[in-house]
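Hi W., the zinc ion complex you wanted:
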Amino acid sequence: MSAILSIIFLSCNSQNKESKKDSMETKGTNAVYSRSDSAKINLADTEWRKLLPEDVYEIAREKGTERPFTGKYDKHKEVGTYYCAACGNPLFASNGKFESSCGWPSFFEPISKGSIVYAPDNAYGMKRTEVMCGRCKAHLGHVFEDGPPPSGLRYCINSVILDFEKAKDAEKEFKAENK
Ligand SMILES: [Zn+2]
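Structure:
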């Protein structure tokens, strides 16, 4: 009996995959996703594989890179907040984003100091600095020292690992300030 129930449950889950963007606080069947809980998440890759869609898993846990100029947030200009698509941790604000020609969403600063962690990455014969989510250690992209002032940094981030939420009030204020 329980086997039948779990089969029904699984088939429901796969149907719900399409509407995963609808929920703000939780995300489909990803039980660790939260935009308010800042407790660190330490899961094995086998656990992440059950929680994340394949494209997110590939970037987050296998340090993949989406093809340049294909990401949905590359040219994205709306006012709001970018969250980690794996765990919901706030990562970047739209006012920390800038237009770069590199083909990936680029930011000059994270939303807060603790939102991101760094690690040296010497793969492919390059000396780079990897950036990861400060809450779940998902791979986000890399940071380079050729960004605009004031930071001089360019956080080059995969769109796939970002969730964007438009800030309605913030947008009004932004428009009023820039009239
Ligand atoms: Zn995360």
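Residues 1-23 have pLDDT under 50 and may be disordered.

W.
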